């Protein structure tokens, strides 16, 4: 569960958003909407400890993550967070399989379940049998699906997704949404910044980052 309380962000004189308060429960999927430049990505970055809010509190499972020191923040990113960001953050010169290996925690690797989980994840995203393809040879949409497979293998507790369907056609958009929904069924909390109405409609709640305070949550 993630709880955001009276969160504000300014860049110099410019107040991007003010007093955001919202809760996303375990197993819930929240859409962050709002016009371009309203601060959706910045809010996701604050949730993922890639940026700092100017004021307010973010709690994950009751812990104020904005007060984490370097070590706690590193462990939180490694053990709790999963990102699905623009640019995918894949290793371009490596194979799909090598990109998935990065996400696997060592203790799971030891149990020898890795191959099966890779095969299952690649099947889920429509890339079955493509383990050995090099990432830079893939299309934008395929790379986006590798990033999703990496998330499925990683099994994070909190997923932050920034326009996860931007490079995808309708079938693949549905596939991404179904995969994220599968993850929520396993207890994962998902927050998605999106302009896509299909994505917004598939979420449990919508938070409009650009709306006046009284009209934000619907
Ligand atoms: N480090 C920074 N310093 C100054 N301004 C910044 C910084 N980071 C973001 N901004 C500004 O904050 C605003 C919000 O950016 P952000 O990317 O969060 O919006 P967004 O709602 O995700 O937009 P889009 O839908 O176009 O992706 C933009 O005007 C951006 O230029």
Name some characteristics of this structure.
globular, alpha/beta, four-stranded antiparallel sheet, 218 residues, binds adenosine-5'-triphosphate, five-stranded parallel sheet, Rossmann fold
Notes on the structure:
- The protein is an alpha/beta fold and 218 residues long.
- The chain folds into two domains: 142 residues, P-loop containing nucleotide triphosphate hydrolases (Rossmann fold, 3-Layer(aba) Sandwich); 63 residues, no CATH class.
- Helices cover 35% and strands 24% of the residues.
- It is built from eight helices and nine strands.
- α5 crosses α6 and α6 packs parallel to α7.
- The longest helix is centred in the last third of the chain and has 16 residues.
- The mean pLDDT is 89.
- The site of adenosine-5'-triphosphate (ATP) has 11 residues, from α1.
What is the first-to-last residue Cα distance? 19 Å
Number of extended strands:
9
Q: List the ions, cofactors and other small molecules found in this model.
A: adenosine-5'-triphosphate
Point out poorly predicted stretches.
none
CATH-assigned homologous superfamily of the largest domain: P-loop containing nucleotide triphosphate hydrolases
Mean pLDDT: 89
State the order of secondary-structure elements, H for helix, E for strand. Answer: EEEHEEHEHHHHEHEHE
Write down the CATH class of the largest domain.
Alpha Beta
Q: Decide which structural class fits the backbone.
A: alpha/beta
State the helical fraction: 25-40%
Tally of individual helices: 8
Strand content: 15-25%
Shape: globular
Largest sheet: 5 strands, parallel
> How many domain modules?
2
CATH architecture of the largest domain: 3-Layer(aba) Sandwich
- The strands making up the biggest β-sheet line up spatially as 6-7-8-3-9
